[in-house]
């Protein structure tokens, strides 16, 4: 670390033939005074100790610090010179010309701040590394266990159908096929979470906000996963006080909604219900996914959006999860400068809420003009 950017250039100067008594007060206020003549010739630095040890009329006779420290020298080298000279200030030069002063306390403060900053950076990097390792371990665990298990079940079902389909009654066949479908859907959801997480971590998922009709997107997502709700006899109710529009990335909204609804289905008993709401709240659109399922333990709420702490619990029908769904939701909501949180419910169940920037036509038009301007 060089001292070049720590040089103080707002120093007080006096003539070499000034009276000591005339500058005593100024010296006490400034700690050090630079001595220069009318031609700008540098003579040295006057400190409080100089006056005490050699109180003469000619200031030039009092000077003890005349050697210039090069501005490219390190902080450690400069502090060592200060210790040798038994002083708290040294003049700094560049190409043997005086350019300013450097103070010991300022060097120490800089080192302290730098070390603190370095320590914080190391902590952040360590946390990121630990999260990356935890994520890698989690993904391998999902691949080795949570994906392997459903495939074994599907293979077992298909083997049973292959060998005994002709002798099996219709109801039993339908039950086996329903089980196969549930396992296939569960496996697909796991794979989708893994792929989305991998793509997001490799920065291959772009953020492309545009005009979005929240009501339509909610309906589209419900249509995609309605069969999973029907298998458990779960009703999904959708409420919109009015047509709500957001300025957001449509694909990311679909991923967020799909994960939240599938999560609600997973932890809701057969015959339960899921309610969805969307409404304008100032500068944001607030979207709610609420269920009457098993609910969430208070101790787990703070861990749900952290992949290295989150352990995915099996659902009410023993559905498996990746543990990444809510983490992906949090990341995508953050991309929109929104918030996602869990609200306490006095009755049974869970309520997830998240916000997205509301669509404003005047802002959109201004952005479109800027895009056209940039293209030109």
How much of the polypeptide forms β-strand, as a percent range?
15-25%
Summarize the helix and strand pattern as letters. EHEEHEHEEHHHEHEEHEEHHEEH
CATH-derived topology of the largest domain? Heat Shock Protein 90
Number of E-state strands: 13
Describe the strand arrangement of the main beta sheet, using strand numbers: 8-10-11-13-12
Overall radius of gyration? 35 Å
Tally of distinct domains: 3
By CATH reckoning, the class of the largest domain would read Alpha Beta
Q: Uncertain segments of ≥5 residues (pLDDT<50)?
A: none
Distance between the termini: 45 Å
Which shape, going by the Cα principal axes? elongated
Give a verbal description of the structure:
The protein is of the alpha/beta class and 376 residues long. It folds into three domains: 4-109, Roll (CBS-domain), CATH 3.10.580.10; 147-205, no CATH class; 209-376, Histidine kinase-like ATPase, C-terminal domain (Heat Shock Protein 90), CATH 3.30.565. The protein has helices at 20-30, 48-53, 75-85, 104-146, 148-164, 170-201, 214-231, 250-266, 298-301, 325-335, 361-375, and strands at 13-14, 32-36, 42-47, 69-70, 89-94, 97-103, 210-213, 235-240, 245-248, 273-281, 284-291, 340-343, 351-357. It is elongated, with a radius of gyration of 35 Å.
């Amino acid at each position: 670390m060089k001292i070049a950017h720590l040089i103080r250039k707002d120093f007080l100067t006096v003539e070499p033939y000034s009276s000591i008594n005339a500058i005593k007060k100024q010296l006490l206020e400034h700690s050090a005074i630079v001595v220069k003549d009318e031609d700008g010739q540098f003579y040295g630095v006057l400190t409080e100790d100089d006056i005490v040890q050699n109180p003469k009329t000619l200031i030039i006779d009092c000077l003890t610090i005349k050697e210039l420290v090069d501005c490219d020298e390190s902080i450690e080298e400069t502090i060592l010179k200060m210790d040798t000279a038994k002083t708290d200030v040294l003049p700094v030069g560049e190409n043997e010309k005086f350019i300013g002063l450097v103070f010991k306390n300022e060097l120490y403060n800089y080192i302290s701040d730098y070390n603190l900053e370095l320590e914080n950076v190391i902590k952040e990097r360590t946390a990121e590394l630990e999260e990356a390792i935890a994520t890698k371990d989690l993904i391998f665990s999902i691949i080795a266990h949570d994906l392997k298990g459903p495939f074994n079940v599907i293979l077992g079902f298909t083997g049973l159908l292959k060998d005994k389909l002709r002798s099996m009654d219709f109801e039993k066949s339908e039950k086996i096929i329903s089980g196969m479908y549930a396992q296939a859907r569960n496996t697909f959801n796991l794979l989708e979470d893994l792929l989305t997480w991998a793509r997001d971590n490799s920065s291959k998922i772009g953020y492309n906000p545009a005009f979005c009709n929240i009501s339509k997107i909610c309906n589209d997502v419900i249509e995609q996963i309605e069969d999973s709700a029907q298998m458990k006899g779960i009703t999904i109710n959708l409420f919109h006080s009015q047509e709500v529009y957001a300025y957001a990335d449509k694909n990311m909204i679909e991923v967020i909604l799909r994960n939240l609804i599938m999560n609600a289905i997973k932890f809701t008993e057969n015959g339960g219900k899921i309610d969805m709401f969307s409404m304008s709240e100032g500068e944001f659109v607030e979207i709610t996914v609420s269920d009457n399922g098993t609910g969430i333990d208070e101790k787990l709420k703070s861990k749900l959006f952290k992949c290295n702490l989150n352990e995915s619990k099996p659902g009410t029908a023993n559905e498996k999860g990746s543990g990444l769904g809510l983490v992906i939701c949090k990341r995508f909501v953050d991309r929109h400068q929104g918030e996602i949180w869990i609200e306490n419910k006095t009755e049974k169940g869970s309520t997830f809420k998240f916000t997205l920037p509301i669509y404003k036509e005047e802002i959109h038009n201004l952005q479109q003009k800027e895009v056209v301007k940039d293209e030109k």
